[in-house]
Amino acid sequence: MLFSLSLPSPAGRNSKSMRTLTGMALMLSAASAAPVALHAQGAPKVRISFTQDSLPNGLHIIYSIDRSTPVVATMMMYNVASKSEQPGRTGFAHLFEHMMFKGSRNVADGAHNGLLEKAGARAGADINGTTSWDRTNYFEQVPSNQLELTLFLEADRMGTLLETLTQAKLDNQREVVKNERRQSVDNQPYGSWLEKALLGVYPKDHPYQHSVIGSMDDLSAASLDDVKNFFRTYYAPGNAVLVIAGDFDLDNTKQLVRKYFGNIPRGPKVPAQRSLVAPATIGREIREAVQDPLAAAPQVFVAYRVPAARSKDGAAVTLLTSMLAGSSASPLYKALVRDKQIAVAVQSFNLGLIDGADMMLFIATGKPGSDAAAIESALIAELDKASSFIDQKTLDRARVAQRFQFVNGLQTTGGFGGLADQLAEGYTYYKNPNHVNTILDDYDKVSLPQLRALVSSRLVPTNRVRLVYTPAPKPAAGGAK
Amino acid sequence: MKRRLLALFIVVSALIPGGGDVNAQPAAGTKPPAAGALRPYVLPAVQTFTLENGMRVLLVERHSLPIVTARFVVDAGAVREPADKNGLAYLTADLLSEGAAGLTSAQMAEKMADLGAQFGTSANNGSAFVTVTALPNVFTEALTIGATALTNPTLSPVEFDRMRTSAIAAYQQGQSTVNGIASKIFYKAIYDPGTAYSRLSGGTTASLTKLTRDDVVNWHKAMYSPKNTTLVLIGDLTVESARVAAEKAVGKWNTPGPSLTPFVGKGLASSENRVILVDRPGSVQSAILVGHSTAGYETPELLPMTAAGRVLGGGFSSRINMLLREKKGWTYGAFAQFNPLKGVGSFFINSSIRSNATDSALAESVREFRRLATEPVPSVELADQLTNVVASFPSSVQTIQGLMGRLNDVVVYGLPLDYYNTYRERLAAVKPEDISRAGAALLKPNGLTIVAVGDLKTIEAPVRALNLGTVEVWDNDGNKIR
C-alpha cells in the first residue's frame, strides 16, 4: 500500500476488537471485500447498474453512474500481483506499485499526489495503490469536476512511467517500503504470523506462499532493470481494467478515455501465471512455537488450506469463516471468551485468494500472564468440533452480516472496497463486473451439507498450521553511557 | 534509453487498428487538464427535536442507500471521571453492551447478529457512546435493543470481571507497540496531571485493577440520563420515523441528570525544549512525537491552527511527509496535526522512524516545527492545502459513519448545529497572516516536548549529541529514571 494514515491517539483502542492484526492482512489484501446474503423480511435490494466498453488496445472500461454525491472515482486495476513475482524477488509487485507514484512524462516526482490532493482527494482514503496476492490497484476519488485530471494521471503513468525512472527514485521507495515492512511486521508484536502461516499453508514455492510485503533481502536485490521489465511485461492497457464510478457524463467521459488511453500501445502478451494448483490439504499438521519479545500476551493462530474464492466452494468458505468466529455471537467467541474466559478476543478471516487454494485463519488472544498451551488446546478443541456449530441459525447470521456489509461498503464510490473496487475485482477475477450483483445469491445457494462437507474435509488436523506465540524475555535494556 | 522506448511505443501503436485516428498521448510538457465547473455539494441541514423525556435528537436524512446509523452521545467521557478512577468512564461504557434489560451479554450479541446490525458501546475523553448501525427494515428493533444498554444495563459482577480483564489486556497490548508507549508518554508530559488528557482514557493496569463493580454501577447511575444525552441519527429515515424509533427506544427513560460544570482542561507549558527517551530494546523503528499542549476547541484561532497542522503534516504532500519519507526515506509516513479538545489541545508531529535515523528525524522535525512557527506560509502552499480539505469534504462525509464523526464533534464540543454547513467557506478564508498570528500566540518552537521510544542502545547517544534540549530517560510507566 502506498500510504497509511496512522496517528497515535490516547483513546485509539477498543478492548472488544483488539486490532492486533495491524497492517498486513487487512492493508495488503483488500481482496476479500466480502459481500452478503438475504434473510430478514423486507430487506432492501440494491442493484448496481453499469455499462462496459473497450478500446482497440485492449483496455476494458466499466462505467457506473451514481450522482448522489458530486464525486467521481477512478480505479485502475492491473492483473498483476505478488503471485506474479519471480523467485528471489518477493515484494517486488508492491515495491513497483510505489514506483507508480514517482512521476512519468508529464508528472514530476511528487506531483501525482500533489495534484490530486490539490484537486480534493484525501491521501490514503481517496488516493492510494494497493497490492494483494491477486491484483494491484490504483485509485483516486475526486470532486466530479476533476475527473479529467485522474485520467490524465493514470494514462501518463501507464504510457510513460519509464521515461523518468531513476535509480534515486527506486532507492528512495525501497527505503520507504522497508520502513513499511518494519512498521507493519518487524516492529509489531506477532508481526511474523502471516509469513509463517503462508509458509506452512501453501506448498513449497507456490506463488501464494510468500507475503506481499516480501523479504528485506529481496527488496534490497530489486534493480532498475527489474522495474523496467516488470513495467513492460505487465503494465499495459490489455492487462488492466478501468472503472469510472460516480457523478459523470457518460458520452463526454468516453471521449476523454479515448483521448488519454487510446494511443497507449497494447503491450506484449502477458506471460502465463505460474500454476496456483495445490493439493486439497496440506497433508500434515505443522506447529511452531514462537518466542516474541514484543508480545504482551500469548496469541494462537490456526490456519487451514481451503478452497479458493473462484472454486464452487468459495462462497461457503467465506460464510464458514464468519459462522465460526465472525462476531461476538459466534460459537468460538462464546466458548473461549465468554464461557472459558481463556481468551480476550477471537477473530477469524479468510484471505479470499482466487485460485488454487485460499487460507482460513483463526486467532485467539490471551490475557497477559495466561498459559499459551491452554489457549491453544481450547481453540483446537473447538475447531475439532466445528461441525456441531453448523446450523441454520448460524448460517442465517452469517448471511445477514454479509448483506449488511454489502450495503455498508457501497457507500464509498472509490477507495477500499467501494463500488469501483468491487466492479474492478468482478472483472479482473470473473471477467464479469455483474458479479457484484450476484454475490448475495451465491451466499444464498450455500447449503448446510456443503458447509459440513467443507468442515469434515478441510478443518482437519492434517490440514493446519498452528502458530503459538508467547512473550519472550525482553532484550537487555541499553542506552548511552 | 528514453528515445528507444519512445520509438518502440510509436511502432506498436501504429499497428493497433484504430489506434492512429485518436489524439496522440500527451507530449512532454503537457500541463494537467483544468478542472471543469464544480457541481456544488450542499450538506443537508441538521434537523433537531426533543423527546418527551428531554433527550435532544439530531437528524440528517440521507436516502441514497438503505442504511441508518444512530449514536447516543453521553456527557460521561473520561474528562468527567475523578483522577483516581482512571478508566472508569471507559470501563462503564464498555460494559453496557454485556447484558441489559433481562438479556445476557450473549443474548444481546445473538439478537444483534440475527438482525445483521452493528452494535457497540465505548467511551473516550469527550463522551460515552452507544452506536447502532443497520438496514432500515430492522433498524427500529436494533435501536430498541441497543438502547437498553444505555438505559438499563445489568453491569453484572461476572461481566464486570471479564471486561476489566479485557481492558487490562488491551492496555498491555497497546503498550507493546512503540506508538502506544509514545502517545502515553507524550500526553503525560504535556498535560496537567489534573486533566484527563494526561492519561489514557482506557486506563492502565494499575488504575483498572483498583476499579470495582460498585464504581461502575454508581457512575452509570450518576452520569447517564436523557438530559445528559444527545441522540444523533443519520441515514435513510425521516423526522417522523426517527421520532417514532427514538421514542420507542428511549422515550420511557427518565433519570435525573447530573449537574455538570463546563470542563476546563489545562496544559503544561515548558520554557525550553526537552527530550524524553523511552527504551524499547531491539526496536527496529522509533516512534517520535514532537510538539506541545496548546489551545482547545474554544480558541478563536481554531481554523488557522487547523490550517497550520495541515501545512506541516496533514496529507501526503505536507512538509514533514515529503521531507522525512519522500526525500529522506526514513519512514513509511510522517504526520502533524492540531488536535483540539475541550478546554485545551495539542499540536504535534509524529512518525515511526528507522532506528538509526531517529536523531536526524528529530532534528528535522524540530527545524520544520520552527519554520512553521516563525516564517509566513507561502500563499500558494496554504491555498493548496486548504483546497484539499475544502474540496474533499463531500468525500469525507460520503458514508454515514464519516458524517457521524463530524456530528459527534458538534455535540461533544458544543459547536453550532450549522458548523459543518459553513465550515468550508470559513476554512477557505484562512490567510497566511492568520497562521502567522495564530502561530505566534499558540505555537511554541522553544517549548517542545520531544519524545522518542526505541532502542536506546542505538538512538540515545546520537540524540544526546544533537543538544535539542535537556534529555531525560523515562520508564514505560512515565517515571523518570535518569
The unreliable regions of chain B are: 1-23
Query: Sheet with the most strands of chain B?
Result: 6 strands, mixed
Output the radius of gyration of chain A: 23 Å
Radius of gyration of chain B: 26 Å
Oligomer: heterodimer
Number of strands of chain A: 11
Helix content of chain B: 40-55%
Number of strands of chain B: 14
Shape annotation of chain A: globular
Order the strands across the largest sheet of chain B as they lie in space. 1-2-8-3-7-6
The secondary-structure class of chain A comes to alpha+beta
How far apart the termini of chain B lie comes to 58 Å
Task: Provide mean pLDDT of chain A, rounded.
Answer: 91
Q: Spell the H/E element sequence of chain A.
A: HEEEHHEEHHHHHEHEEHHEEHHHHHE
Helix count, DSSP H or I runs of 4 or more residues of chain B = 18
Gist?
The complex is a heterodimer of chains A (about 475) and B (about 475). With about 475 residues, chain A is of the alpha+beta class. Helix content of chain A is about 40%, strand content about 15%.
Fold and architecture overview:
The complex is a heterodimer of chains A (481) and B (482). Chain A has helices spanning 24-29, 92-99, 111-119, 147-160, 167-186, 193-201, 216-221, 224-234, 250-261, 314-325, 331-339, 372-384, 392-409, 419-430, 435-445, 448-458, and strands at residues 51-54, 60-65, 71-78, 127-131, 136-143, 240-246, 286-292, 299-306, 345-350, 358-365, 464-471. Chain A is α+β, with helices and mostly antiparallel strands and 481 residues long. In chain A, strands 1-2-6-3-5-4 form a six-stranded mixed beta sheet, sandwiched between helices. A five-stranded mixed beta sheet of chain A has the order 7-11-8-10-9, with helices on both faces. In chain A, strand 4 (127-131) and strand 5 form a beta hairpin. Mean pLDDT of chain A is 91; it is low at 6-40. With 482 residues, chain B is an alpha+beta fold. Helices cover 44% and strands 18% of the residues of chain B. Chain B contains 18 helices and 14 strands. Chain B has helices at residues 2-15, 88-96, 105-115, 136-151, 157-174, 178-190, 205-210, 213-223, 239-250, 302-313, 319-327, 358-374, 379-391, 393-396, 400-412, 419-428, 432-442, 456-466; strands at residues 47-50, 56-61, 68-74, 99-100, 103-104, 118-123, 128-134, 229-235, 274-279, 285-294, 331-340, 345-354, 449-454, 470-474. In chain B, helix 4 (136-151) runs parallel beside helix 9 (239-250), helix 11 runs antiparallel to helix 12 and helix 12 packs parallel to helix 18 (456-466). The radius of gyration of chain B is 26 Å and the shape is globular. The termini of chain B are far apart. At the A-B interface, helix 3, strand 5, helix 4, helix 5 and helix 9 of A face helix 1, helix 3, strand 6, helix 4 and helix 5 of B.
